Amino acid sequence: EVQLLESGGGLVQPGGSLRLSCAAAGFTFRSYAMTWVRQAPGKGLEWVSAISSGGTTYYADSVKGRFTISRDNSKNTLHLQMNSLRAEDTAVYFCAKEGGMHGDFPSDYWGQGTLVTVSS
Amino acid sequence: DIQMTQSPSTLSASVGDRVTITCRASQSISSWLAWYQQTGGKAPKLLIYKASSLQSGVPSRFSGSGSGTEFILTISSLQPVDFATYYCQQYISYPWTFGQGTKVEIK
Fold first, then answer.
1. Residues of B at the A interface, defined by Cβ within 8 angstroms
2. Average pLDDT, stretch B21-37?
C-alpha cells in the first residue's frame, strides 16, 4: 500500500524558513517523480514544485528562487525547503507521487497534507 | 504558463442527475489532462487521466472526454458520495496547472 506522510508544517513569521518532509512507503520511491501541491484556506489547488526520478527540478513562478525541492532516495523521503516565506504561502501542503518518472502521468497518490501558516 | 478554466464554478444537482463539468485550456494540451475529486479538504483523488482513461478503482459512472483545449467530466448518475469539488489539471508541461475547481452541491 502506498503511503505518503508529510511533516514539518507549523507557524512561521514572514521572512522565515521551514523545511517540509514527506516519508514515502509502499512503492519504489527512486523510480517515480514527486510533486508538492498546496491549497490556501478556502481556495483551490496550486501546483508548487516537482522533481523527476533523475533529480530534475521544476517550480511554479510564485515560489521560484525561494523554495527548493529535493529527494533522498536512500531514505525514501521528499523535502521542500521554503525560505523567505510570505503570508500568501499559508496553505496546506500536499506531497504527491506522480505515476511516471518525469511528468508523463499525473499524481496518483497523495499524502494528507501539512499546514504551513505564515504570520507575525 | 497554461491557464485552465473550469465551468461552472458551482453546480447544484440531485442524486441520480447526469452532471457535466467543462475545462478549457489556454492552448492545446492534446490529451494530457487529469480530473481530481476533493472532499472536505482531504487529499485529492485521481479520477481520470489522459483525458478519458479511468483510474483504477474509480466507478464507471465517471467518464472524461475531449482533446486539444476543451474537456468534459461527466458523472452519469450522481451519488451522495459524489458531492465534492472537482479539479482539472494539465500535465503536458511544467509548471502543471489546475483549474479553479467546480463545487458540486446538493440541490
1. 1, 34, 36, 38, 41-46, 49, 55, 85, 87, 89, 91, 93-101
2. 98
Which residues on chain A are in Cβ contact (under 8 Å) with B94? 50, 58, 103
Q: Check: CB of residue A32 under 8 Å from CB of residue A90.
A: no
What's the pLDDT tens digit per position in A87-101? 999 999 999 999 887
Contacts of B1 in chain A (CB under 8 A): 61
Strands (E), A1-86: 3-7, 10-12, 18-25, 34-39, 45-51, 57-59, 67-72, 77-82
Residue B39 to residue A111: CA distance in whole angstroms: 14
pLDDT at A95: 98
pLDDT number for residue B41: 85
